[in-house]
User: Fold this.
Amino acid sequence: MTQYLIRRLILAIPVLLGVTFFAYSMVLLTGDPAYALAGEHSTPEMRAALREKLGLDDPLPVQYGRFLARIAKGDLGVSIISRIPVATELRLFLPATIELALSAMAIAIVVGVPLGVIAAYRHNSLTDLGTTFGSLVGVSMPIFWLALMMLWIFGLKLGWFPIGGRIDRSVDLQVITNLYIVDSIITLNFPALLSTFHHLTLPAIALATIPTAFITRITRSAMLDVLGENYVRTARAKGLAEKSVVSRHALKNAMLPVITVIGLQMGLLMTGAILTETIFAWPGMGRWVVNGIIARNFPVVQAGVLVFAMIFVAVNLVVDVSYGWFNPRIRYN
Amino acid sequence: MSGSVAETDLKGLARPGTEKQSQAVVRSPFRDAMRRLFTNKLAIVGMLMIGTVILVAFIAPWLASQHPDKNGVFEAFPRNNKLPPSIEHLMGTDVIGRDMASLIIYGARISLLVGVFAVSLAILVGATLGAIAGFAGGTVDNVIMRIMDIMIAFPTILLALVIVVILGPGLFNAMVAVGIVAIPAFARITRASVLGESGKEYVMAARSVGAGARRVLWRHVMPNTLSPIIVAASLGIASAILDAAALGFLGLGAQPPTPEWGLLLSRNRGYMFTSPWMVFFPGIAIMFLVLGFNLLGDGLRDALDPKLD
Assistant:
């Protein structure tokens, strides 16, 4: 197990190196960074001086090596727009995205798994057809459209939820981890917790749509496979209650592909976050990076690309390792 | 109906043996798959939905009430702006008084083009790379697939955004970006099925009669890897359309005055609270077409390979 973990970590290194290389060269591909830094009204001399100072005239491998050394120390550069260190901004925005993504995933699992189980259990029934069709509609919806519609109906027409932000301005919250749910629980600040959930609901549901659909579909098909197995028949034959057959015997064995999809979707949630955050004015990574891209704020884009990719690689690793826990038959050699 | 049955019976009686033979010809795997596809209700619904959009795209000049000029610009009628849906304007009008329905009808051409172009690009590059990786193995395989791993490590929208920033915003560059993003998926799928096929007897047979590597790969192995690629293509068109619409929405895809659905939605977003139809209908159009391809893709998967995940 430990050996496997080490091997997987080593295998992830070339991918991460590739990601950092891409993140670095991307900046050069989008034009002269000195131009972006010095602004439109800079003279060629100013830009030349800046290039000299930043070492942009050195050979690419040298520059890349310097970049690696820099990020290894946790120095991600300074935002061109706000002049604040990128790492500082990241500490502010990343927790907001994590909070949103995890909430969305929680909704997706809580809704998707039972729906999939019911659809499989009532195979070919109207419920099954409805679930299958419904989940396809879910993956076919443009998430930005759904978010706007929810905002219009529940935010504006019905006025049930706020239309943007993470917490009411009137609520005081001592920020520790910047995960507002965690912060309000450890400071026992219930008004803040309530306000956080209130703000989180719409974006989290919008973001949860696609993963819910995927989890429903995969749970359904995995359950269909498992429900036909001999041991399920055996469990029934020995007189176990149907509830126990489904939940303890079938579902546990059907979880493996579900876990894979949950992992994959966790990575894709970051993609969804880019659009969801833009619409709900959620101060997270997605909005930060999109604004960075539009403003050519390349240190921010670099950091965003790196962090997103690292999360994705890490999640995949966790998924692979968790297989063993769900299926003891898997050996890591 | 009964007449034709009697006829076949007679033929069968007259020449025993031929009946069986012709049956064997009819039941080719392809015909089997098509039969399964056309008995799948959801797949048929999907095909009808796609067919509707294709039809709309073709007959747009006859269907729409407003038409673009030579430069693709729809005339603005500021006095008619923000009209709610009515008999005259089925989907209302937008901020500058253009007929929403006409814009969406012409937009169908763009979304279809985006989906087909992006996926064609992805298949061309991805399937070729995947086939080479799976067939060559060793270092070639490792290098190609590690590059694919790196590409997959980026969220698709983010990668597409970065590519668009490198290439510059615009419809064509957005199509290229969305196509590039889809390459790793096709490479992986093709590689997996090439690996699966390469070990089979018919490949060994082809090799043993002296067929070169290139011939074995393209003439023998590749045709047998088509099913998963076809399935992935249909689902891929769906996500390509969604991704391109998202790029349009973020202002980095199609540029005005192109009536791209994502762009229409984003341009009217600021007026959503007062004139929601301007945002509602483009979204419905996107969902309709994407759902069609997803339904078809699902049906194709069940029809071509029930074991495929």
Notes: DSSP finds 14 helices and no strands in chain B.
